[in-house]
Amino acid sequence: MEETTKGLNVEAEPTPQPVNPTADQIGSADLVVGVLTELDSNAMAKMCEALRTLPGPLRIAVLRDDPQKAPAPVNSETTQERALVFHVPSLFAKPSAAATGVLGMSETYQSVFAAAEKLLARGCCILASKLEAATPLWAWRIAQPLFEGQADLVLPHYTPHKFEGLLNASIIAPMLRALYGKRVNNPMGPDFGVSRRLFQRMLATGAGGNHLHPLASLTPMALCQNLQIVEVHFGTRIYPAADWTNMSSVLANVLAPVFVDMERNAAFWQRARVSVPVPVIGEPFPLSPDSSVVDERALVESFQLANRELQEIWGLVLPPSSLFELRKLARLPMEQFRMPDELWVRIVYDFALAHRLRTISRDHLLRSMTPLYLGWVASYAHDLTLAGATSPERRLERLSLAFEAGKSYLVSRWRWPDRFNP
Amino acid sequence: MWDHVKQALAESMTRFLTRLANFLPGLAALIVALLLSAILAWILAAIVRRVLAGLHFDERLGGWGFSSLAEWSPMNSPTRLVSRSIGVLVIISGFLIGIAAFDFDWTYLFVQKVFAYIPDVLAALLVLLVGNVAARFLARSVLIGAVNLNLQYARFLSIGVKWIVIVLTVAMALEHLRIAPSIVELAFGILFGGIVLTLALAVGLSSKDLISKSLERDAKKASTEPVEDPLRHL
Fold this sequence. Notes:
The complex is a heterodimer.
Chain A: H1 2-8, H2 23-26, E1 31-35, H3 41-51, E2 59-64, E3 84-89, H4 101-118, E4 123-127, E5 130-131, H5 137-148, E6 153-157, H6 166-180, E7 182-183, E8 192-195, H7 196-207, H8 214-224, E9 229-233, E10 237-238, H9 247-264, H10 266-269, E11 276-277, E12 280-281, H11 296-309, H12 311-317, H13 320-330, H14 341-357, H15 362-367, H16 370-385, H17 392-405, H18 407-415
Parallel strand pairs in A: 1-2, 1-4, 2-3, 6-9, 7-11, 9-12
Antiparallel strand pairs in A: 4-8, 5-10, 6-8
Chain B: H1 2-54, H2 57-63, H3 69-72, H4 78-101, H5 105-148, H6 154-177, H7 181-223
Helix pairs in contact in B: 1-4, 5-6, 6-7
């Protein structure tokens, strides 16, 4: 037992915590909750209280990076009605200096899985995002399907805001839906509930020398293994503000592991045909009115500049028909600027293929995609701000259908990149 | 008297014939070496051409950023350029072997000098190759980065960086080849300094308006309410 708990300290020796059952006393836990977001001790106490209402008897270990803020345990034993919640200090791997963004986060996620494995947990939850309607029930909502519904992966279904989470809405979610045939809204979380079966597979695949990025790989792995996925209505997520000077790095960091996973699972997704929804638990949260307006001019100008200067690079990635359409698009006046979904879908698929073929340096490739993405964002913003515009859900559903319709194009390009080049 | 003349002629004839007899085997060896090397060059070039064509070398080269190499190649085919270069190298080697067959001091010295120079040539070629790759990679990085920062002079910056690296590379290669080192040093200093000064002036002058507009915009922003950007990507 002592062996197990000693091994838990991934980064440093834990400082003695007089108020909590120390790691020596833990031994095992049924559920491990990794709290990666900033939570004050009050919110943390409420979250623990909510967790204790999970049907027991359960032992729940809450992993925190700052154990000083951990509240004192309320109960000391588990019963049929009340779970035992205790805190385990400093177990997260600190992201290395070289790994930033998604890559850095991935190391932290992997360390939560490692801790859950060492504590012989039946499941683990990771809370990483700030929620607008801060409720202590987040962790409960994610954990409950793991124990009651026998789910393997619990994904969040955030209340959508029209201009938020655009990278997910424009590329990741619709592409994974088209590839794997399951309609998941937030495949990259970042809040997850993961069953023992799934995190063990993640750890085993990672140990086998594969470079896995849990944020990007969790959902595709669950889909490829036919594990049960459920979504939970989760309220409105607070997204970090856009860093325009670093936009291309963000895009490269997020898309690189997604494209790597796509390459790894090519044999699976080429067989998948139509998409089906996944079960959703709970009621959707009410939408708050959103009257925000986007400065489309800056986005379109960025696209037009890139269209002038990056033709040489795009020419290595995109087929002549797409290049021709992009040139036509760049000549349109601002008011008429609209990137068709079909073109955007082909662009995404062609970049994924170029990533696989290493047509040019992968970093250059993904960074050169940034202006195209901004062009799509401008087009999307334009569609939503028109009088009598469709709702964001309908607009994004149309995009998802375009991704599904374009899958045959991807499969043909993927199988015969030299011969099929329209 | 006549006997002396006859003897001198005979000796001269003997010397000439002896030298000719010494020279002819060398000449024959040179011709044979050239013929053999030409045949070997033709075979090697054909093999290399077939292998590179099978690997789609011309297309891949474009992907690696060497598309302009096609313009310098015979029939716009880098595959032909490589295969012919290998053929020429083999023929030159055959020629050197043939030359060495002449049993003269100067041929020996010539061949010795040529062989001593080969490492320098190879080092210079390596420097040129690495420099070219680095120049193209850096130029592409700068171009993409500058475009993503919405800099209107992105192309100019990219070309500037590319030429700085190429000039540096050529200077280093010439230094290796020991071709007029003092002139190369001086020319490099002038050229490099010139490029940097040109870039600084061009960027400075062209961004004058940009900076003043940016300052005006900042001043306007400070006096008005800040508008929050509603876009959230991640």
